[in-house]
Design goal:
The complex is a heterodimer of chains A (302) and B (280).
Chain A: H1 12-46, H2 68-75, H3 77-110, H4 115-127, H5 130-140, H6 147-154, H7 169-193, H8 198-206, H9 211-239, H10 243-248, H11 260-269, H12 273-301
Helix pairs in contact in A: 3-7, 3-9, 4-7, 7-9, 9-12, 11-12
Chain B: H1 15-39, H2 43-46, H3 61-68, H4 72-103, H5 109-118, H6 124-137, H7 144-148, H8 155-166, H9 170-178, H10 183-191, H11 196-212, H12 215-220, H13 229-238, H14 245-277
Helix pairs in contact in B: 1-14, 3-14, 4-8, 4-11, 8-11, 9-10, 11-14, 13-14
The chains are: A mainly alpha (302), B mainly alpha (280).
Chain lengths: 302, 280
């Protein structure tokens, strides 16, 4: 007579697999829950309270204030200012970085010799510390004796004090950031370009398409998902703009370069933990919205 | 006659393209060259208006000051310890969970996957305030473990290892099972040895990321003996040494040169990693 077997005994290797999988998963998951997932939720929780640095020992005994931090943020002139600045970082930085990266990728894709050398050179700033690079650029952009203004004066242009100007400081930081970040996108775009069949371009060329037309009507549409992906990861990066402003301008002049992340860091420094957490969640929201917009745009194509 | 047989696009690359790309390359590296050249000028020459192109006097004074006036060996040591710990943690734990998610069937798999991948895009600024409260209550502020513990298990490593291991054939695992190997043994002696390139990519990217990490060490390190290189450099650059350009540029050289050396030696793995995941 057949024994009654419960389903879980049917396949002993399944059970061994499950045990092994959890043994492998536990170290990561323990650290992950404590140091990543936990704080993500705790940050949301803190954003609804008036927790300050003095409440450090008793984080669960603080007052619940509902949405007050958020309503205060939205009417805080400084938060409005840093949100606008962050938006400008994204709106200026993403197109500039993408255009430079695409130009470099298309150029590298057309050459046969020295491609490796150019790729390494263009990617080089990406691996270096933003802090170190910002120190160097602060030196390059000095009003008197800076390399940029020295070169400009040799062609008769009297260069301004880039980082001391409320109108020029932010664009200067954007140019520096584009210089540092274009390598990542270039490598991604180059990989995308290499998936476009050569036959398509050849056919278009036989049909008399100019190189601009080939770029506009073959390369760009074929590269669309890659370009969108690039725009989103770059946008997410610029939403978190911080180190460049910290080192080069300290957020000034007159908060002209202060970013949302900088604001969170400042509020944290003042001990306003609940307020800082709420601001960080609004930034998180912007990241989520940007990501969702990408998925939406990608799906429209299909 | 022979010319007509040539395919239409096999023309030689125009020389102007090399000139444009070369000019671009120059703009990419010139800040580093200017950094290195200026760092071996005496302070007065560093500030000269107009600047000298090549140093009139070559000096190592700025580098000596990094050791005598500042404590760069300590910052260097701290940066190395934190980056190594973070790298080892992410490589080991990322490979373990990456394998489980790629090849094993287990209850809770979808939840684990969703949870880990769901935080891939969370900005660091979102977690640092509660992390600071946690670190303080654990007594870990102003310690090196306080700097690396929160970064030992990052979603990026799991994602990368899962992608790579999914590409390995299932037959390898089935054959090992038939040979009677235990599940953990399969991971350690069959799968892991095949993961060399992915582990190298993950290791290098993690090391570079940690070496350049700024916000968290800035928050956790409170006394100079716990500064990492970027923290020390940034605080000197905005503090009372803000105008000591020679010193700061020498510091930037010390931060940047090891990374550039690692990159040039191992750039193959870095490029692979970007192509594999699309994320730096």
């Amino acid at each position: 007579m057949a024994q009654r077997i419960s389903p879980r005994h049917v396949d002993p290797t399944r059970r061994q697999q499950a045990v092994a999988a959890w043994v492998l998963a536990v170290p990561f998951m323990a650290l992950f829950l404590v140091f990543t997932a936990g704080p993500v939720l705790a940050s949301l929780g803190m954003s609804f309270t008036d927790i300050r640095s003095t409440d450090m020992q008793t984080p669960f005994a603080v007052g619940f204030t509902g949405l007050e931090n958020y309503t205060r943020l939205l009417s805080d002139p400084l938060f409005q200012k840093v949100s606008l600045n962050t938006g400008v970082y994204v709106v200026l930085g993403v197109p500039l970085t993408m255009a430079l990266a695409l130009a470099a990728a298309v150029g590298l894709n057309r050459i046969t010799r020295l491609r490796g050398l150019f790729r390494v050179g263009y990617y080089l700033p990406v691996v270096t510390s933003i802090v170190a690079v910002a120190v160097v650029w602060k030196f390059l952009l000095r009003a008197e004796g800076g390399l940029v203004n020295t070169v400009l004066s040799s062609v008769g242009i009297n260069g301004p004090a880039w980082l001391d100007s409320t109108t020029l400081a932010l664009p200067s930081l954007v140019v520096m950031a584009a210089w540092r970040n274009l390598g990542t996108l270039m490598v991604i775009f180059l990989a995308g370009l290499q998936t476009i069949p050569v036959e398509m371009k050849e056919a278009a060329e036989v049909d008399g398409a100019t190189s601009w037309q080939r770029f506009r009507f073959i390369t760009v549409p074929m590269l669309r998902p890659t370009l969108l992906f690039g725009a989103v990861i770059t946008g997410i990066g610029y939403l978190q703009f911080f180190e460049e402003a910290f080192v080069m301008t300290k957020g000034g002049p007159l908060d002209a370069t202060r970013s949302a992340t900088y604001f969170v860091y400042d509020q944290f420094g003042f001990g306003n933990y609940g307020y800082a957490a709420a601001a960080s969640y609004l930034l998180f929201l912007a990241v989520v919205v940007l990501t969702l917009v990408q998925f939406r745009l990608l799906r429209e194509k299909d | 006659m022979a010319d007509e047989a040539k395919p239409p696009t096999r023309r030689s690359t125009p020389i102007w393209l090399y000139l444009v790309l070369g000019a671009g390359l120059f703009l990419m590296v010139v800040p580093f060259l200017w950094m290195a050249i200026s760092s071996i000028k005496p302070e007065a020459e560093v500030r000269a208006v107009p600047p000298t192109w090549w140093p009139e006097t070559i000096t190592m004074d700025n580098y000596v000051s990094l050791f005598t006036r500042l404590d760069f060996p300590t910052y260097f040591f701290n940066s190395i310890v934190v980056a190594l710990a973070v790298t080892v943690g992410n490589v080991i734990f990322g490979a373990m969970l990456g394998y489980a998610l790629a090849k094993l069937v287990f209850p809770g798999k979808r939840v684990v996957f969703g949870l880990v991948l769901g935080t891939l895009m969370v900005p660091g600024v979102v977690t640092f305030v509660p992390l600071f409260v946690l670190t303080t209550n654990l007594g870990l502020t102003n310690t090196l473990p306080g700097m690396f513990l929160p970064f030992l298990a990052a979603p990026f490593g799991v994602f990368l290892m899962r992608q790579f291991i999914m590409g390995l054939p299932d037959e390898l695992i089935q054959a090992a099972r038939i040979d009677g190997a235990g599940e953990l043994r399969i991971f350690f002696s069959v799968i892991l040895p095949l993961c060399g390139p992915a582990l190298a990519t993950l290791g290098i990217l993690t090391f570079l990321g940690s070496w350049n990490n700024f916000l968290w060490p800035l928050v956790v390190a409170q006394t100079e003996d716990k500064f990492t290189l970027p923290v020390a450099l940034a605080l000197y650059a905005v503090g009372q040494n803000a105008t000591q350009y020679g010193l700061l540029l020498a510091g930037a050289v010390v931060v940047v040169i090891p990374v550039i050396a690692v990159f040039l030696a191992l750039q193959r793995y870095i490029m692979q990693g970007i192509a594999m995941t699309g994320i730096k």
